Amino acid sequence: MILHFYFARRFAMSFLLLTLVLFSLVALVDLVDQTRTFGDLDVSFGAIVGLTLLNAPQTVNEILPLIIILATIALFVSLARSSELVATRAAGRSALKALVAPVAVAMTIGILAVTMLNPIVAGTSKKYSELAESYRTGGASTLSISGEGLWLRQGGDDGQSVIRAWRSNADASVLYDVTFLSYAPGRGPIQRVSANSASLQAGGWLLRKAKLWPLGPGVNAEAKAEYHDEYVIPTTLTLERIRESFGRPSSISIWKLPTFIEQLDQAGFSSRLHRVWFQSELARPLFLMSMVLVASAFTMRHTRFGGTGVAVLAAVLLGFGLYFIRSFAQILGENGQIPIYLAAWMPPVAAILLALGLLLHAEDG
Fold first, then answer.
1. Are 318 and 219 found together in one domain?
2. Looking at the whole model, is its pTM more than 0.85?
């Protein structure tokens, strides 16, 4: 048990050190990128640093498997160079028993990443998107989905508009039973528009069967109401920006994701992307465990055998390959090419079986 705690402590220290180093590198690179993006938009350096700190956790969360691989390599290479690994083998410890502690730590990290880091990343990435959109356009464009339909807000120099629709098509390019409420800066609501449908065109919403009510102090809205078979309301929204508002599952906490998926289905959106993401997050601890097993299969060897550099490179490349296969399987799942559960759970299970096969071959030949 003492040896297990020793290996666990060494692995945890390597993981924390590598996380700190990579977080610093990611933040530095992102700071340069944010400065290039927002430097010409009259955004202060303090605001750019804030954007960087909000965006960096998402990147670190994405490269967590790479950190696990590097931490495992650092652990076993250092144990091999100090001959501690040889002493462990001489004491009768097999490779699989020596891996119990690192695998348990990786499993714990995966559980913490799903239950704690995921909500933090969701909050910071959502705040980053809102601030970045505000700096780019002067007004944020947000979308909210609830049991009462969907709510969309668009902003610009002429003011803000709140859009409410009972349902939409899968990509939110067409809204049904829709209402627009326009606000002028410093004046409050100035116009209300209801329509059977609203289609997002280039530069505007095309409303069909629309009714307009002018709003303001002393105005008889119903008496001055107008009817139009077609009516266009200008907008700076695009399909890409709408998808960014609600289509990124990473901006939603995993604790809220099941409810959000139900609301997507009720509003008429396709929830397949979010379902694949949800299952992939649940399978993340297994995938991090597989990264430990893969890295150890190449590095649990004494340095006198030589070829340590080649073994480290092979472990990193295989880890990247498995990460690519996992991402590719998620894309296939999002496109409906393979079942959702297969897309989320098969890559980590296959990676674990592959790594165990390599370990058993190395141990028993």
1. no
2. no
